Amino acid sequence: MHKALDLYSKVEDLLGVNEVTPKLYENYFSTLQTLEFNSLLDIGCGRGEFLRQLTNQFPNAKLMGIDLSPLMVETTKSKGINAKCIDLCKLDKKFQVITAVFDMVNYLNTKELKRFMRCIEERLKDGGYFICDINSLYAFEELAVGSYVRDDNTRFVTIDSSFKDNKYYSEFTLFEKDGERFKKSQDMIIQYYHRIEELTQFTNLKLLEEFPFSIYGEEIEKFYLVFRK
Known about the structure:
CATH class of the largest domain: Alpha Beta
Structural class: alpha/beta
Largest sheet: 7 strands, mixed
């Protein structure tokens, strides 16, 4: 998985992620503005853009990001943000707020999700909040399935995606210019469809808020969830 995440980190900017994240971030910023907190952990921090914007809005809060991709972590750290390449369950700290942005939870299978929710509880301070978003069934079955190509002259990537048995498969093939030739890298990323009920049954956290929303169109693509310990 680490190798696949590193490959994804090389092509993320080609996939239009930066164009849609502002609408998603609005939900998080809106919730966080209503909370009093001085420590926040972002799981799956990626390139650290979410944390960078939080730094501007909450300059007095201690922010930290973790990610399983070393390349992502190094990019986040280059922005002056505290970040580590470490598994959540191996982290020896507690926070008032924990976030998992842009369907990070969907990268976990059922067994991993149970472990993840338990570790969230253990790393939240009493009264703390866990905020996340998960993909709808429509997002997997209809919106994301198919094949397409993206390029920027120095590299191009092909993505072939399918959805079966509640699993979303994305095969990435990247060609990077290396002198007069192109170097090829290829890997598979799997995401898993989870119902809201699955998350709630795996934790003692109380679900305070849930609402559906869309980023790309009018159909429901995601669910935004706020839990409290």
